[in-house]
Write a structure and sequence with these properties.
The protein is an all-alpha fold. It contains 15 helices and no strands. The protein starts with 17 loop residues before the first helix and ends in a 24-residue tail after the last helix.
């Protein structure tokens, strides 16, 4: 394990770690494919059924699986180890994604089948994401600011994919079709699995740990004021984000003449802001405490979402998505860093898996409610509800930040007070 310091005692740059570079390459590859599917999957559902409610149900199935398997699969996540979890996740999800276009071309794809496949895909997401976070301290060490910059670098790769993927997806859908785009996503998972298997160093098997129930990981999160309030705030924030993302294709279909390019462009606007914010976070964390960045971003989001119901028009919505993405990017890496260091070292994989599941439980709710409520009430009332939810999340972040500055985990090398984490649309 690297210690996070050079022999002279000064922190190395995050780019000096070969393992981190491999993680960045694999994450960029798989996430680019995932962002292609972020437009192609709901677009295919709307193409098949013409129903926003069915679209919300299908996409919520994936998030529901993340919640279920994130909670009940938490114990074995810690026992299998981060490297194996990530390899299994990429290896299995690729064929599952490829199954959707195959069924479509065979005229066997319907809403029920789509729901089942999406649920299976989502089963691997929470352990994968938690393993990705848990492996970083073993790469760069426990120094809080260095770990924060490593988180920012990893999230920059993700944000770059969010920036490029939707626009590329929209263009590919217009040139070919949504099932073809899903095949590209399947190939990206295979490429990521190959990178991880060939270049990610083998780590010793995890030290056998006592079998703990998922409830034990949940109790760990709830026993700490910061973790409990932020976990709830992340769930509410995820609810607002996923509901908003679910509505973007609906806006493109109902207000912009059914243009897939517009749907991709709206997601790209968010991705551009988020990438810029993440890059800023990496630089700002050299001087600004991560806790300060986290609270600034989360409170700013609580205010910014109240612009959604104002009938902004397409250009105004694009500007708002850029600004909201910027605030999200600035706060995500700091939130992730504090949360990791707040959890005891031997409990991180399982606790992070449960935390991911809880956050995306909110996302599942957002997908379901957005698709059903918009059909009966319209888009504007839904936007107002999302603003209220995001504001409540900001309040919880402020309350949680009052829970004490110190890290709670086994982090002897931490050199500065703990700061907040991240939430993840």
């Amino acid at each position: 394990m690297t210690t996070g310091t050079t022999p002279a005692g000064s922190p190395p740059g995050v780019w000096s770690h070969p393992t981190l570079r491999v993680l960045l390459a694999a994450e960029t590859t798989s996430m680019l494919g995932t962002q292609l599917s972020a437009v192609a999957m709901p677009w295919l559902v709307l193409q098949l059924t013409g129903s926003a409610g069915d679209m919300g149900l299908v996409m919520a199935a994936q998030l529901a699986a993340i919640t279920v398997f994130g909670f009940f699969g938490a114990p074995w996540t810690g026992r299998i180890g981060p490297r194996r979890i990530m390899l299994i996740g990429d290896t299995v999800r690729g064929p599952l994604v490829a199954l959707l276009p195959v069924l479509y071309y065979l005229h066997c794809l319907n809403t029920a089948t789509f729901v089942v496949v999406m649920f299976a895909i989502g089963a691997f997401y929470a352990p994968y994401l938690a393993s990705q976070q848990a492996i970083l301290p073993s790469v760069v060490g426990e120094d809080e600011r260095l770990l924060g910059r490593a988180n920012a670098a990893l999230q920059s790769a993700t944000r770059l994919s969010v920036l490029l993927g939707p626009t590329i997806s929209g263009l590919l859908i217009s040139l070919f079709d949504a099932p073809t785009v899903l095949l590209v996503d399947a190939v990206s998972f295979a490429a990521s699995a190959l990178l991880l298997s060939q270049l990610l160093p083998h780590t010793p098997p995890p030290t056998p740990a006592p079998r703990r129930s998922p409830v034990a990981a949940l109790r760990l999160l709830l026993s700490d004021r910061l973790l409990s309030n932020w976990s709830t705030g992340l769930a509410l924030g995820e609810m607002a984000w996923q509901a908003l993302f679910a509505l973007l294709p609906v806006i493109a279909v109902t207000r912009e003449g059914g243009s897939s390019v517009v749907a991709g462009g709206l997601l790209t606007a968010f991705g551009g802001g988020a990438l810029t914010g993440t890059l800023l976070a990496g630089r700002l964390m050299r001087r600004v405490p991560p806790r300060t960045l986290a609270l600034t971003g989360r409170v700013g989001l609580g205010v910014a979402f109240f612009a959604l119901p104002l009938h902004l028009g397409l250009s105004g919505l694009v500007c708002l998505l850029v600004f909201a993405g910027l605030l999200n990017g600035v706060s995500n890496a700091p939130v992730a860093t504090v949360r990791v260091l707040r959890i005891p070292l031997d409990r991180r994989p399982e606790a992070l898996t449960v935390a991911t599941a809880l956050a995306l439980l909110g996302g599942t709710t957002g997908w379901i409610l957005s698709g059903t409520v918009v059909q009966t009430a319209g888009i504007t009332p839904v936007f107002l509800g999302l603003a209220v939810v995001q504001a409540l999340a900001a309040v919880l972040f402020v309350i949680g930040a009052l829970g004490g500055p110190g890290t709670r985990g086994a982090t002897a090398s931490t050199s500065s007070p703990a700061h907040p984490t991240k939430d993840s649309p």
